[in-house]
Amino acid sequence: MKLKGKKIIQLASTDFEDLELWYPVLRLREEGAIVHIVAEKKGEKYIGKYGVPVESDLTFEEVNPDNYDALLVPGGWSPDKLRRYESILSMVRSFNEGNKPIGQICHAGWVLISAKILNGKTVTSTPGIKDDMENAGAIWVNEPVVVDGNLVSSRRPPDLPDYMREFIRVMTEK
């Protein structure tokens, strides 16, 4: 178990992409990580785009980024909601400043754009937000997974195995 004892935040909001939230959570738990689902309300059930629910463990305000080793942002339509919370943007900046792994897939790049941490970074995402990523100063490439320092980005559900392989690798090197 490569990640035994590591603590990871998985952000959640309504309309997350079901596989992009659950696949990383399950994969990281298989590696021994403690993954907390963090959302606006504690103990609330949030429903993914395809109807798969997730229940939150903690609220955005309850978590202290200093107590966690990594952060995951799911895709779907939830990133458009998540980026509206200053507490989320502050959390993303804290992880970035601490050089802690941040995983983002699909539309999750919107959260990193709003946190203003992409300037000069090489990333990928769903092609639908390529212009947004480039307008934020990122160098966008069409690859299954891209690692630039502490940022691990991926495009969409078929890329999840590559995404998690690289995310776990980055976590074990930190």
UniProtKB/TrEMBL annotation:
Entry keywords, A to Z: Glycosidase, Hydrolase, Protease
A molecular function (GO) term: peptidase activity
Pfam families, per the entry: DJ-1_PfpI (PF01965)
DJ-1/PfpI domain boundaries: 6-168
Any one GO BP annotation for this protein: proteolysis
Top-level taxonomic group: Bacteria
EC number per UniProt: 3.2.-.-
CDD domains membership: GATase1_PfpI_like
Entry's family note: Belongs to the peptidase C56 family.
Protein name as annotated: Protease I
Species: Rossellomorea pakistanensis
Organismal lineage: Bacteria, Bacillati, Bacillota, Bacilli, Bacillales
